[in-house]
Amino acid sequence: MRTRWFFLALILASIVAGLQHWALADSLYWRFVWFDIPMHYLGGLAIGALAVALIMRYRPRLYMAAFAAVVIGWEVFEVVIGSPREANYAFDTSLDLLIGTLGATTIYILARYTIWRSN
Q1: What's CA 68's distance to the chain center, in Å?
Q2: Cα separation of 77 and 73, whole Å?
Q3: Those residues with Cβ within 8 angstroms of residue 56's Cβ, 6 or more apart along the chain or in another chain
Q4: What is the structure's pLDDT at 11?
Q5: CA dist 59 → 62, 82, 111 (Å)
Q6: How many helices (DSSP H) and strands (DSSP E) are in the chain?
Q7: For residue 29, what pLDDT band results from cuts at 50, 70 and 90?
Q8: Is the pLDDT of residue 72 over 90?
Q9: Which among 12, 15, 18 has a CA at the least distance from the CA of 53?
Q10: Structure pTM?
Q11: For the chain, what are the domain ranges?
């Protein structure tokens, strides 16, 4: 396991957890409709960093599969727990997946041109 990438994932996950706590306490998701966009981007960064920490060699398909499993699992989890849904639920979910993918892609590019560059 790559320790630096793992700690980056923990730091990013801690930031997401702290922002989530603040957002729920102060109703930020309802006051600012855009607030979930940076949250999903940060979540994508955290998931991507964790995947880089755990995948020792350059394996783009495994990276994409791991990321897809986590983000799709998260969206299913939101449905199962009864998270409030808006009238434009399909659009919101699609946007969430896109923004999270942008975060994971950012980490992928960073890893590809640093630790995975020799492969």
Answers
A1: 10
A2: 6
A3: 1, 2
A4: 97
A5: 5, 35, 11
A6: 5, 0
A7: confident
A8: no
A9: 12
A10: 0.88
A11: 3-112
